[in-house]
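Next up, sample data.

:::
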Amino acid sequence: MSLRLVSWNVNGLRALSAKPEWKWFAETNADVVALQETKASEEQLVDSLRSPAGWNASFCSSIVKKGYSGVAVYSRSPALQIGKELPEDELRGEGRLLHLEFPDFHFFNGYFPNGGAEELGEDGKPTGRFLRVPYKMAFFEAFLALAERLRASKPIVVCGDFNIAHKAIDLARPKQNEKNTGFLPEERAFLDRFTQAGYVDTFRLIHGETEGAYTWWSYKTRARAKNIGWRIDYFFVSEELVPSVRDAWIENQVFGSDHCPVGLELNL
């Protein structure tokens, strides 16, 4: 059985759905569509987004701030069960994680935290520390613990916006960003540990050291036209599923957000 999964940080689902680019959803042949940064609660969505024909829809929205964060999963087949957020109370409430259990694997859709703004010292100068990095790293550690616990029962598929470029090949200007969140040593070290624990970056599995493959481009600098981007959106599978991976891709021809969709095909 072939299964196609796609993931997209839509940077506002209601805004994107009003654009011509949202025809992507009507035309997709995916079996599972995972969205991040939906910026909406389920109640704020029109029927065509809340319960589109032919799909089972799941949502996890922020309760700490409206119009912030949020993830959604549309699946052709219903999940066996659905979970929201992480178990730890201090890491809940921002609408960052959906867990769907399917017959053959646990599926996670995550909008992982970014590092936030840079702290300023008493002199008003940047300190090199970022306000949300401690929260971000705690979130990743808790997620890995949850994934490892569930992995004892069946394999793991996790997708989403990780807000980390793992290696120098994963962003256009690594040297200039070594002190910026998203490419900090401690952030990259987590992805080192994550992959060492047996979670495989499926794009690199299929495409090796392909350069210039990015999934996010800053709006501020018109970076997409120049392909000055970052690869921060991923599909990882636990290594037990590697024999099932048939394809992985980046849909960089799809517009409508500052991110583009990424995909995975499994043969189960």
Notes: The first strand starts at residue 2 and ends at 9.
